[in-house]
Design brief:
Length: about 425
């Protein structure tokens, strides 16, 4: 047996063990978050036990993925994406309304959330498109198509009423940047984010626009040698003014009241501890009360008495912080860092451009979920309701992330054989 054949049959042990450790950590955290006197670990009706069952489903799905030829996913990327987009449309009309959004198919014994599966479908489709020989992301039309691949599922998910999940898809812009997208587009996006925050912080948008115009006038006064850039300065001032109006208009007329309140809480414009700021306030108390080593397994008080809402899903990190303290939180963060580092390592050793792009897409999705979810619990980002990968309760979430990992592992085991 030659060296290539040996590598073909081996999976990345670090990724596999880290994945299992995170799922195990998640089951323990869910059990702690729902624990009440009399509840046993093997209670089949409990959330943590259902999560164990879903983990079994994930392992079965992983086994099927590992048996398939790696080129299967490349060959059917367009088809998988089309089916996924169709499911996102169908759930709008035939789905079950949960927490204000229509994002779930109720299949009797369980529910499925198509948006979780749209993540790996979009990653496959994006990789398939980028590696085409006729695609150059420095060309406007090619870049527009790539953005369209990302924006389509995001738009459908916003239509469902789940804007939080939609935001995650735009983390794939990092993949576009690495694959040849001009750097100025990424910098422009970052600048617009900061400009949006400034526009929302200023109570008087006309004053902000006046500062922008004043800055343009001062620039014009200092221009003597190169007068050809004057139209660009004037155009920039006009676009600046229009964008400020757009941000404020969208905030007042597009966002729902609870979304407006969450952003105002983050920006420090309101401090309503009984309403908009309640979740984050209680979350901070729970995490801070854990101290260095935590209160002990099943000994949490903030979490046990339902002070923190959505404890087993969006705010699962509160349980970790309160019961396991700084050390438990640190271990969890280290596990994520190891997983992300290893995914990037795997991406770099791929011989196929398709596998390389897909691997970086997986890293972007997981990193975005990780940062936003933990940021929500400590008040660094608005509460937008997305799960902590492999930790939060939810079969669709766990299965969706597991499929991402197993496809990545499959590509890595066949990195000498993937066609594209």
């Amino acid at each position: 047996m030659n060296r290539n054949q040996t590598r073909k049959k081996s999976s990345d042990v670090v990724v596999v063990l880290t994945y299992i450790a995170l799922v195990f950590f998640g089951v323990i955290a869910i059990y702690a978050s729902v624990y009440a006197p009399g509840l046993t670990f093997f209670d089949v009706d409990s959330k943590h036990f259902r999560q164990v069952i879903w983990f079994g489903v994930c392992l079965f799905a992983g086994l099927i993925i590992m048996v398939l030829d790696g080129n299967f996913f490349s060959a059917l990327a367009y088809f998988i994406y089309a089916i996924s987009m169709l499911s996102l449309v169908l759930v709008i009309f035939f789905g079950q309304k949960v927490a204000g959004g229509v994002s779930w198919f109720n299949l009797g014994l369980f529910k499925l959330q198509p948006s979780e599966f749209a993540k790996f479908a979009t990653c496959l489709m994006l990789a398939k498109y980028i590696v085409r020989t006729d695609v150059n992301l420095k060309r406007f039309t090619d870049l527009a198509w790539a953005f369209g691949i990302i924006a389509l599922p995001a738009a459908l998910i916003v239509w469902q009423g789940d804007s939080g999940t939609a935001i995650v898809f735009f983390s794939l812009v990092l993949v576009l940047y690495r694959s040849g997208m001009p750097a100025w587009i990424l910098y422009l996006g970052i600048a617009l984010i900061f400009l949006s925050l400034i526009a929302l912080l200023f109570e008087n948008q006309y004053l902000l626009i006046a500062f922008g115009i004043l800055g343009a006038l001062l620039s014009l006064m200092n221009i003597r040698k190169n007068r050809r850039i004057i139209p660009y300065i004037i155009g920039g001032a006009i676009l600046f003014s229009v964008y400020v109006f757009m941000v404020n208009f969208a905030f007042e007329n597009v966002l729902k009241p609870h979304q407006q309140n969450r952003i105002n809480v983050l920006l420090g414009k309101i401090d309503d501890l009984k309403d908009a700021a309640y979740n984050v306030y209680q979350s901070k108390i729970a995490i801070g009360s854990g101290g260095f080593s935590g209160k002990g397994f099943l000994n949490g008080t903030q979490t046990k008495f339902d002070f923190v809402p959505e404890l087993s899903t969006d705010f699962i990190f509160c349980t970790v912080g309160e019961e396991f303290g700084f050390m438990g939180s640190f271990i969890l963060i280290v596990l994520y860092m190891v997983l992300l580092y290893r995914i990037v390592f795997i991406a770099e050793r791929q011989r196929s451009a398709f596998s390389n792009v897909f691997a970086y897409s997986v890293a972007s999705i997981i990193f975005c979920h990780f940062v936003i979810n933990m940021g929500m619990t400590i008040g660094l980002v608005p509460v937008i309701g997305i799960p902590l990968p492999f930790i939060s309760y939810g079969g669709s979430s766990l299965l969706g992330f597991s499929i991402l990992i197993f496809i990545l592992l499959k590509f890595d085991t066949e990195r000498y054989n993937i066609v594209r």
